[in-house]
Structure formats: C-alpha cells, structure tokens
Amino acid sequence: MVERPGKLAGKVALVTGGASGIGRATSLLLAREGAAVAVTDLQDAAGRECVAEIAGAGGRAIFIHHDVASEDDWRAAIAHTSEAFGRLDVLVNNAGIAIAGLITEVSLADWRRQQAVNLDGVFLGFKHALPLMRAGGGGSIVCIASTAALVGSSNLVSYSATKGGVRALAKSMAMQCAGLKDGVRVNSIYPGIIGTPIYGTMEGAPQHGPGGANTKHLSRDPDALATMFVPLGTKGAPEDIAAGVLYLASDDSRYVTGAELVIDGGMVAR
Q1: 159 is catalytic
Q2: In terms of CB atoms within 10 Å, which of 30, 143, 209, 258 comes out highest?
Q3: Which structural domain, as residue segments, surrounds residue 126?
Q4: Is residue 270 part of a domain?
Q5: Domain assignment present for 2
Q6: Would you say 42 and 119 are in contact if contact means Cβ atoms under 8 Å apart?
Q7: What is the mean pLDDT of residues 5-11?
Q8: How many domains, in total, are found in the chain?
Q9: What contacts 105, CB < 8 A, 6 or more positions away?
C-alpha cells in the first residue's frame, strides 16, 4: 500500500500557544499531515518537548519563545520562521488567557492584559504574518475564538469581549484578503468546553465545584461544566479542535473563508 501524502505536505505553519492544550494538539496534527511547524509559546520547556515529539516522529519543527502581545516578538517569530523554512502558509492564532470575575471586580490592568494577549495578539499576527504569506502566494489563517463570543458568559466578561473581537476581526480580515485577491483565507473556530490546561490557570475562578445554588461562579472542572451545559454530555478534547484547524488549513477548505466553525458538543444550538 502506498502511503498518501499529508494534507499539508510542503506547507509551513506557525501555531501560537503551541506548547500545550489546543495549540499542542494542533502542532502535532499539522506536523503529522506534512507541515513544517513553528511552535511558539512562553512555555519554553513544554514547547521544546512538543518540537522533540514532532522530530521523533520524523517531522520538522522549531520552537520560538514568543509573547503574542509584543510586536517585537512577532517580528522575531516571523523572521525566525522565514529563516528556518522560507515561507509561511498557515497561521493559527491560538494563544490566549482567561480571567474570570464580576465586572466590578476585574481591574483595568487585568482587562488590558486580557485584551493584549487575546485580541492584540491576533491583530499583530495578521499584521506581521500576512506579508510572508502573500510572498508565497497565499495561505490560511485560523483564529481560535470561543463559544463565549457567540453567546457571552456572565463569568468571563473580559474574556468574552476579546473573543467577540477575534470573531469580528477574523470576518473583517477574510473580506479584506478576499478583496485584495491575495490568496489568503481567514476563518475562525469556536471551541466549547475542551479539556485543556486553561481551566487550571484561569484567574478569578473557584478551584472546585460550580458554585452555590444562588451563585454563577465558574468551575475550574471541565467535566462538571460539560455535565451541566453540553448536550452531548462530555467535554471535548484538544484533538477535536485540531481536526477543525486541519480542515481549515488544508485545501479541503479551499472555497471557505469568513466561516465560523463551532465545535462545542451542541452548547450553542441548545
């Protein structure tokens, strides 16, 4: 039997927040499908472990220390990717943080930090990745938003605001790139409750349980949340989101731009 070539054979991808969770699953899958992958993150050890796993499976990858809220870091990340692989075909804007809490309890500094990572980081990704993608004839940009952008969340107001911004930015950029006929497609994915480390690092949320009967506190337990809110009854896996990224990154979606792919076990549909 002749092994089929990967769906991304010959392509180069950059995945922000690629060291863990959805980013890691995405980096591994894109590499398995033939892409050379630039894994970027602030988590150096985990990022290098991801790259080592890709290399161990015969793939090509590099790790780049990268704060997505820093324009200098974006310039360096794109330059490093170009130096290593010569082009960029896929950008996955995935890096993000979550700060929970009542609006009256969220500091202006935390609001701005949430915006800087989740929304400024996506803006900077577009700004600095597009010239390299266009130089190679185009490509695909996939933005990881959230179902919180579609229905809101009383517990995650600043997070929801950033993901709503990502939604609008992705759609606007899809139209801008289409208008310029630059060969770049832009789409977004809306994960629901996915089993990732973000629940363990979520600021302002209780450590255990969904809160009392008269509260709306956000649990850090994705299994408990899925039982309460997901029609399919279980949390999703990072690999579920990675599969959506692969579709949008590959030529399977060559006629898809400005789309919203919801992967949430039915939460938004209920």
Answers
A1: yes
A2: 30
A3: 12-263
A4: no
A5: no
A6: no
A7: 94
A8: 1
A9: 204
